[in-house]
Design a protein that fits this description.
By secondary structure, this protein is α/β, with parallel strands linked by helices. It has 19 helices and nine strands. The longest helix has 53 residues.
């Protein structure tokens, strides 16, 4: 046997031993997340690009493994399956691909994603990790910490995979991925990265199985056994690549069980896309039985394939749900915001420039200051005439009010639980409340096409679908409670809470920066005043510094950083509480629909309390839509 063979095996064994000893805590933490995801019926995904995909594939649907782990498949990245081979590496650097990939899966809050990348530097794994965490998923990264610092990140943020994970498992692979060297060979060779990353993944699975087995319920450990029959069901609308969801249910020792150990009724198994308690899930983007099957496809591993209806509306996104009125008001608000901020910024810049020019000696500087003041007056007149801030606030109030109304209708919240409490149909209630919203604002300015919209509303008759109720809203309204809850939690509650948390951090940081400048600038003015008094220079910088300080203060008041940070934090906390209550709702209870309508209303109230501050700034009285 060649001495290199022995050296390779020795290097591999030594590396495995090192990883076992030094990564024990990380493996246990990742196993805890995996066991919790399995026990709670969450979706579990694994992704790796190129050779890193081998370790991801190694834990997917194999004998002795957990059948609930799904391969997140991106064409061109699953192994080295494209020609020319460097195309796979090029795809890893494409921005936006990871976001689009994850958005086409049912992945949502509480689900788990394993990300494997040797260097952790490419756009794909970093973007995928960041987007997954933004959606509330837990992320476990398997990477080598030898690469950050040795190679630069290709992601625009400059971060690596290790910076965007809940748990990081360090494979400890050296840069270059070679354990051996030989005179005459230009570089190191003998890669052990696949061995080590696969061992790490299998160790996590083994530890998770142990944690599940310790709970004493064999049905809670969804292992795949060779020779044992597993029924696999594919759900999804078949129209979006990667939108399928495979469920694997074991046959043999006992029935599938729910979270509390209750057997799942046949009616709840495979009827819709959603977080059905206790049902094992498979595959977003990777269909083990067959790819790109039409809607309603069902298959049984080792048995015949059958077709039948699947009660599902596919993957629902908020952007597809909202009506035309929201998009018109949202566009007007964004236009007003951009214009108001730009004009305010230029007005402050011109004032500072005027103060600086006026402090200098000479006729030319005096004329420059006069010109700057003239431009400032013209800018102020333009702001007063156009009132872009009014368009900003008013458009946002209309958009958020329409969004709240649309979600209430679509998920049967508040009075929209059938039958409505005061009116014979939900569409009529929606029409009355929408008319109330439009009557509160100068909607002709906020919505340029308002004349056509009003004509459509006047022409509407109760027998047809309301012109401001989208097809997606109608479809979602007709779904079972479990589907409505999943969509609402993912697209409305969690997404809004995440946005509030991000904005609260941004506003708090901006407020702190403005506060520091408020302290620093007077100190600068003090130093300059002393230096001028001592005769070091004759330029009157005090006026300029004062103008800058006043501009910083005015800018902070315009953006209202601190009040906004407090409002966003409060709204996020309220939504977190409601989210937990909605997630704990038992869909099979007698009063499930009534409880759901109340809790969803509470969620919308928490969101409304934040966006009504926009109305308060415009001194518009609170909107009192009939309920």
């Amino acid at each position: 046997m060649s001495d290199l063979v022995g050296q390779y095996f020795d290097a591999a064994v030594a590396h495995l031993q090192r990883v076992r000893d030094e990564e024990a805590a990380g493996i246990d933490a990742a196993a805890e997340l995996l066991a919790a995801a399995v026990a709670d019926g969450r979706r579990i995904f694994a992704f790796g690009a190129g050779h890193s995909s081998l370790a991801a594939q190694d834990v997917v649907y194999r004998a002795g493994g957990l059948v609930v782990i799904n391969l997140l498949n991106v064409p061109g990245m699953t192994g080295v399956n494209v020609m020319p081979a460097p195309l796979g590496s090029a795809l890893e650097r494409v921005s936006g691909l990871a976001t689009a990939t994850l958005d086409l899966t049912p992945a949502g809050a509480g689900d788990l994603l394993f990300l494997i990348s040797l260097s952790g530097r490419q756009v794909m794994p970093v973007e995928l990790a960041r987007h997954a965490r933004a959606r509330g998923m837990h992320v476990v990264g398997v990477t080598s910490l030898a690469y950050p610092g040795a190679v630069t990140s290709n992601h625009p943020s400059g971060t690596y995979l290790k910076d965007n994970c809940d748990v990081v498992l360090d494979s400890k692979i050296a840069v270059g991925d070679g354990e051996l060297s030989r005179p005459g060979a230009e570089t190191t060779f003998g890669s052990v990265s696949t061995i080590v990353t696969s061992a790490l993944m299998q160790a996590v699975v083994a530890a998770a199985v142990g944690k599940l087995a310790d709970r004493g319920d064999p049905a809670a450990v969804p292992l795949r056994e060779r020779g044992r029959r597993h029924r696999v069901e594919c759900e999804g609308d078949g129209r979006q690549p990667g939108a399928h969801l495979l469920r694997v249910l074991t046959r043999g020792r006992g029935r599938a069980r729910g979270r509390a150990g209750r057997p799942l009724s046949p009616r709840t198994v495979g009827t819709h896309t959603g977080r059905t308690p206790g049902v094992s899930r498979r595959g977003a983007g990777q269909n083990t039985v067959g790819r790109n099957r039409p809607a309603g496809f069902r298959a049984t591993v080792g048995a015949e394939m059958t077709t039948g209806p699947v009660r599902s509306i596919g993957w629902v996104r908020e952007d597809d749900l909202l009506p035309e009125l929201f998009w018109a008001a949202d566009s007007s608000s964004l236009q007003g915001q951009r214009r108001a901020v730009a004009l305010a910024r230029w007005e402050l810049v011109l004032l500072v420039a005027a103060a600086a020019a006026g402090s200098a000696d000479g006729t030319g500087w005096a004329w420059a200051a006069a010109f700057a003041y003239l431009c400032t007056v013209a800018m102020a007149a333009l702001v007063s005439r156009q009132n872009p801030q009014g368009l900003w606030y008013e458009g946002r109030a209309v958009a958020e009010s329409v969004k709240t109304l649309s979600w209430k209708y679509a998920v049967r919240a508040d009075s929209y639980q059938p039958p409505p409490k005061k009116l014979p149909d939900a569409e009529r209630l929606y029409a009355i409340q929408l008319d109330g919203i439009l009557g509160e604002f100068e909607t002709d300015r906020v919505i340029p096409q308002m004349s056509r919209v009003r004509a459509d509303l006047l022409a509407w008759r109760g027998s047809a679908r309301h012109p401001q109720i989208t097809e997606r809203m109608q479809q979602l309204r007709e779904q079972p409670l479990t589907v409505r809850r999943d969509v609402y939690l993912r697209e409305r509650v969690h997404a809004q809470r995440t946005w509030y948390q991000q904005k609260a951090r941004q506003c708090a940081n901006a407020g702190r920066r403005a506060g520091r400048l408020g302290i620093l600038l007077p100190l600068v003015g003090l130093v300059l005043a002393v230096l001028r008094a001592l005769g070091y220079f004759s330029y009157d910088a005090l006026g300029t510094v004062s103008a800058v300080a006043a501009s910083v203060s005015a800018w902070a008041q315009l953006r209202q950083y601190r009040p906004q940070a407090a409002a966003y934090s409060l709204a996020a906390s309220e939504l977190a509480l409601v989210e937990r209550q909605l997630d704990q709702l038992k869909p099979d209870s007698e009063d499930a629909e009534e409880t759901w309508a109340r809790l969803a209303r509470d969620a919308e109230d928490a969101i409304s309390r934040e966006h009504t501050t926009w109305q308060a700034r415009r001194e518009v009285r609170s909107l009192d839509v009939p309920n």
